[in-house]
Amino acid sequence: MIDHVSLAVSNLDRAVSFYERAFAPLGLTKLVVRPAMVGFGKSYPEVWINLRTGMAKLVPDSGAHLCLRARTSAEIDAFHAAAIAAGATSESAPSLRPHDRVKYYAAFVIDHDGNRIEAVTFPQG
């Protein structure tokens, strides 16, 4: 249903470097580069990183929450490790999360601009 999303960032070069590393384990690569935005995806830009001047004035934890589907828990482990190595803050380490209606495996990180990025998979069995 959703075609693409955009994340606002205060420093485009830093964000692109971060997202190139964090998205790689999930199969997303840099596909389009424009003066104030960069698009990442598998076959077309699904996630846009957009420069927003004045971002420093925002509350640090006021960013977006983006959840990306992974095929396996190993991809989520690799995503989390790559994001941390690229400078993210871990909000929640990779783990199985049993809930009332669904069991899923996920990890959350926070980028330099307060955006919460999650990777999730739904193990069978």
Write the layout of secondary structure elements.
Blueprint: E1 5-9, H1 12-23, E2 29-34, E3 37-41, E4 45-51, E5 65-69, H2 73-85, E6 89-98, E7 103-110, E8 116-121
Helix pairs in contact: 1-2
Overview in brief:
The protein is built from 2 helices and 8 strands, in the order E-H-E-E-E-E-H-E-E-E. The protein is an alpha/beta fold and 125 residues long.
Could you explain the architecture of this structure?
- The protein is an alpha/beta fold and 125 residues long.
- It has a single domain (5-121), classed as 2,3-Dihydroxybiphenyl 1,2-Dioxygenase, domain 1 (Roll), CATH 3.10.180.
- 20% of the residues lie in helices and 42% in strands.
- The strands form two sheets. It has a four-stranded mixed beta sheet, covered by helices on one side. A four-stranded mixed beta sheet has the order 5-8-7-6, with helices on one face.
- Strand 7 and strand 8 form a beta hairpin.
- Helix 1 (12-23) runs antiparallel to helix 2.
- The radius of gyration is 14 Å and the shape is globular.
- The chain starts with a strand and ends with a strand.
